[in-house]
Amino acid sequence: xxxLKASVxxxxxxxxxxxxxxxHNVQIDADKEKGASPMELILLGLGGCASYDVVAILQKxxxxxxxxxxxxxxxxxxxxxxxxxxxxxxxxxxxxxxxDKQVERAIRLSAEKYCSASRMLVEGGVNVTHDFxxxxx
Length: 137
Description:
Pfam families: OsmC. This is OsmC family protein. It comes from Psychrobacter coccoides. The chain is α+β, with helices and mostly antiparallel strands. The protein has two domains: about 1-35, N-terminal domain of TfIIb (Single Sheet), CATH 2.20.25; about 40-135, GMP Synthetase, Chain A, domain 3 (2-Layer Sandwich). The chain has helices at about 40-60, 100-115, 115-125, and strands at about 5-10, 15-20, 25-30, 65-75, 85-95, 125-135. A three-stranded antiparallel beta sheet has the order 1-2-3, with no helix packed on it. A three-stranded mixed beta sheet has the order 4-5-6, covered by helices on one side.
């Protein structure tokens, strides 16, 4: 098992600077004035992980994809800890002659096999759902 190292350093008030294992800096702010909140980063991590998978699977399926956007809506518990309870992911896939069947397959494979963020959230009790639309372009 590979060990990853990251750090989060307090800057001021509720602002922190995160350094990812890759060395990239991420501004974090609980008040959202200087950066994304920690829970927003979890949501974006899920969207990024799943989108990466969907693009890679569609490209391997020889689909002429020109754009993929993942629009997410989420609900959180009203009590502390305010965990995510439900997340819906709507994929908008643009390209030429994109087969709905291939998009559906790519999303399913990401959700069930490849996206670590999705698996972690689902196994933690979050209801993650998906749908998609294909736009010719």
